[in-house]
Amino acid sequence: MEQQTKPQKTRGHLTLPGEENFYQETLEILDRLGADAIRDSDGTELPENVKDLDGVMVYGKYFTARGHNAFASQHLFEASRYYLSSDFVTASGEETEIAFMSGYFAQQIRPDYDHDPQKWWEVRDRTTGEVLDTALWKIDRNQNIAIIQTVPFHVYSVSFLAYGIWDPVQMYNYLTNDWGEDVEKHIPFDIRYPESEKYVEEALEAWLKANPKVDFVRFTTFFYQFSLVFDQEGKEKYVDWYGYTNTVSPKALEDFERAYGYRLTPEDFVDEGYYNCNFRVPSQAFRDYQDFTARFVAQHAKRLVDLVHQYNKKAIMFLGDHWIGVEPWGPYFAEIGLDGVVGSVGDGVTLRLISSIEAPMHEGRFLPYFFPDTFFEGNDEAILAEAKDNWTKARRALMREPLDRIGYGGYLSLAYKFPDFIQYIEDLAEEYRDILARIEHAKPRQMAKVAVLNAWGKLRSWGSHIVAHGKWYKLCYSYLGVLEALAGMDVEVSFISFDDVRADLGLDCDVIINMGDAYTAFSGAENFLDPEVVTRLRQFVHQGGGFIGIGEPSAIQAQGRFFQLADVLGVDKEVGFSQSTDKYFDQALDQHFITADVHEALDFGETTANVYALSAETEIIAYANQEVHLASHDFGQGRAVYITGLPYSAQNTRLLKRAIAYASHKEVELNRYFAQDDRLEVNAYPTRGEYCVINNSADQVTSLVYDGQGRAQKLTLPGAGLVWLKDVEGR
Amino acid sequence: MEQQTKPQKTRGHLTLPGEENFYQETLEILDRLGADAIRDSDGTELPENVKDLDGVMVYGKYFTARGHNAFASQHLFEASRYYLSSDFVTASGEETEIAFMSGYFAQQIRPDYDHDPQKWWEVRDRTTGEVLDTALWKIDRNQNIAIIQTVPFHVYSVSFLAYGIWDPVQMYNYLTNDWGEDVEKHIPFDIRYPESEKYVEEALEAWLKANPKVDFVRFTTFFYQFSLVFDQEGKEKYVDWYGYTNTVSPKALEDFERAYGYRLTPEDFVDEGYYNCNFRVPSQAFRDYQDFTARFVAQHAKRLVDLVHQYNKKAIMFLGDHWIGVEPWGPYFAEIGLDGVVGSVGDGVTLRLISSIEAPMHEGRFLPYFFPDTFFEGNDEAILAEAKDNWTKARRALMREPLDRIGYGGYLSLAYKFPDFIQYIEDLAEEYRDILARIEHAKPRQMAKVAVLNAWGKLRSWGSHIVAHGKWYKLCYSYLGVLEALAGMDVEVSFISFDDVRADLGLDCDVIINMGDAYTAFSGAENFLDPEVVTRLRQFVHQGGGFIGIGEPSAIQAQGRFFQLADVLGVDKEVGFSQSTDKYFDQALDQHFITADVHEALDFGETTANVYALSAETEIIAYANQEVHLASHDFGQGRAVYITGLPYSAQNTRLLKRAIAYASHKEVELNRYFAQDDRLEVNAYPTRGEYCVINNSADQVTSLVYDGQGRAQKLTLPGAGLVWLKDVEGR
Description:
The structure is a homodimer. Chain A is an alpha/beta fold.
């Protein structure tokens, strides 16, 4: 990274991990990097002398509902629970045994026989969808087997209530790092139950008293772990970063029934084995249950935060682990009164997942973690490469919505052995603080307002298409690429739901993006059968709005269309039924505004098969394999753009920026604060009268760069470099 | 093609086209090729002296319901009709005009204002699916516009009754060949109406009297044209070789209501704009209407055939054009009493589409047609290539289920200018007659019995996945390839429907194949929600049967599965909802019985995205792009094979043969009557004590060939060659 001039060293806004027997080196690095806070980790404790340093704040991690085995082992009835589905088993005779624990890890999952299976469990005929009468099945508790009277060749599953008796995150660390029998296996417990409810507050107070030197209590997190279940070999079996499967209990169901007037069933949780994952259009029962859980969690989290405040400490939470019910974009988050949030930054999307939260402080943990799997001898280059990639991706997003603090995790002593890396993060911290100082209170100029429309809306801001946080998935990357592009683009981004559309909320934007696979929460499925939704969206575009559909936007087969907004998009997907209709529109335009900067092969990721243009009025921009991959279509005063998929790259980011400008009729705005070369991006801060050009690539780049008046100058930036330029008034 | 020894020339079983002013050459070619019949075509007449030739039968084409303009123009009220849909139009205000004729060809289509639109037409709100009250719209008959009171941003369409006033097949020939104003435009008429009903018999009788020299009356065909509609520029707009859109009339609807006790609506025909095409799972209303039409057509066709017989002539029908209602695999076909069927042979599938019909005589028209677009100077090589490709593909199928006659169409004088071609078809005719003589009464040995399961069953035998006869479609070729492979494979093939499965019919087979895209008639869609269907299929496999699923077999999203027979197949398709479940099975086996002969890159055609193995019990045979492309799975005593798609090729034919052997546990049968090289195929005729090895390629091939005992010998065949070998008793 480039420093234009070497200014006086700055300090602050940086948290580093501490460890025992590393005092002098810790002092040295804290000073070099200008760090002002030090933290412990899962598995490490801070030495006392580090806690005593002047001007260095102390972060103390705190596990609320795990890591208290003395209590938990005495209250196993209050351990966390799941509703889980057995394998789907095909009956071949009139009696079928289902070993419902098959595929689960006995050290994590244990059937809840404290509650009568006949009352709390369900056996389903998955061929008819019907629940079996309880007279038709019984449970062999010794063998964990359901014995079911079956119709031959129907498929059956058992939905059973189970204890989660080992915290899955600790389990993962435990098994991965081979911690061995001397480390306790954390039993998670559930504050729905009275002893646990009381205990968490008492334990926290005791801890606060015992840890007077901690300035920031870092909750990891509150009460309910996101869905994370392991298989019989202890390998990950099911993961949903947003999943509620580990929040359930008989008490919760009974409380819910009192509050909402109806009873939830095991199927409301098991959901055909899909467990209401992020991709399912949420049922009303699940929405109600989410709301119910979030209110409960917020109430109880607030009590803990209040307690922290009573001890004159700050309370922050980690975005992940036991964070279910505290989704920071939900309606109850503000009530908790947290002083900040902290989370892991893998890229631009995850940075904004943190920085967009309405909270007093946002801190991002950068990569790589100082762990032995990365920081081993000879791996210097890979370490530097990961750090640089992480920073350049994050920096784009930071320019739009900054973090208040950054930090690292792991073992400082490991990182210390890599001086080039230490030098890099020293420079990085300087660059970060310089950026922050300039833009902390300056709103960046936005070329356009973009709303991402899906079934979750604001609740899953920046979190659409996430399965496990930070992991690549085949069915996601072609959509996540769009979010990654948006994370650092000079547009204002909001996330809106179909309910917002129905209520005319969030439509004060220039462009609506709808993207995802058919029938998922992200494209929206049955929401597009609601006349209110489609008419409002059509009206929005007809009156001049822009609409960008990616993948299978508005898809649900009905009334002669697969894309319900085919009239707006000018394209539909052939699913077989309209093959008899000749399709004559197969010529892509020679050139187009949207693809004007394309210089390498187009990459639409997974692509969506068999999309075709409905009429000659559709501008086909990319056509291959007898399919439309990119198109535009005017609709009334507005305009739609269709893209088959868009993984993250510099070229695709540019393509999306142009698509937004085109869809919103802002072509003329493109050349303001704009770099010809797509490796560079420009962010302007009108109230500061300056703009910043960043190089997102590792290459030295020379490019024309346009100012706010559209006047060009030639600039050269080194790899990953950045430069601040003064805005000059127009002639 | 190779002749082993030059035997005495044979004669017969061959029809050639005749034309005027070509008498001597016609005699010469008839003699050289041993032809025993001569025919006229659309646009040509046979000269009298050709009709008088000894030993040469005369075929006379006969148009039943077109080509009689003197009558038709006097009875325009009885012209053929359609229910058609206007474009789908999005309302932007409270009154919307739909120019319903937009996109139609005024010379073909004319609104039927003889029947009150308010009674016979329908305006639909395609956003809600509702029919509009007739008070909400009116028709401007001068401008052909519907004026509709609309909800802004709802989508509307008009389903209107229209006359078809120009026969679309003649129109196509007319426009393509630029026939000009002196040729009459054939007006098709509808025998539902009394004058036409009477007229067709009188006209035929007059024609029979006027054409005493005709031996075979070739009906082209009977009364109703398959769906073929042109656009405003006279280009094909909609084509469905099996389509019933041109059979409708107010009289038909009234008769139907009397017979079936309920009234059909325009939507029963328009079907959201899909017009009940071959790919739609047929509604009960459409099935009823098909039955109603087929019975009517059969009754009236029988009268014409009887008339032909009264004049001591034979009656045959052409498979196509006005053939709707005479589907030869339907229940009423036999009643008609036809003496034979004739159709165009484009490949193995279309050969068997003809040869599998239960009729006394089957004749195939081979390619290329002797038309100027092919038979032009300098095109010798392409002509020969097309003829050879056509013959080698057809010959495979012929070995399984022979045609009784072959023939050519077009202008003999054109073909005459290409002596190499004439020589080729002379040899071809000899080879054909030799094959026919040997196998006409000999049933070929079948390695296995295969049933193709779809929503149509027997009714569309060999006709599944056809849009326009003989044309390539992107969403079809990966399935049609399977049929093409089967057409020449040593297996017995039947076509069964879900109703057959429900009634336990057709399950006396070794392997069931279910193939097609999700939700189409070919994969079966909602049929797989019927417990009776899935339990019988599961039972079939569990008790030892084989099941081969191709593309999206048994696909319909329900109860946690996309493939409803995922338990049988061992694979399912990820559509987004189960991404949270880890998928660990991604290793293909190093080798497998099914792919043992693979020697070039696997080609699964369009492939089906995101198929994954459900458990370690699934044998993954081909895995690429993080997807299962080929797999096998044991289920009870039986076995399933999944293939993502299978375009036609020698390698894929072999792969399918092996998949059938594997699925049916007949691995040991594979090496009987078998050639190592996949370009060769072996057909055995036990009752004749001989077997035939054919070379389907243009290459000389040397290969091990196994006899019925599995004993190998090395054979060399020239390109496209064949050899007959005597069966020797086992040791």
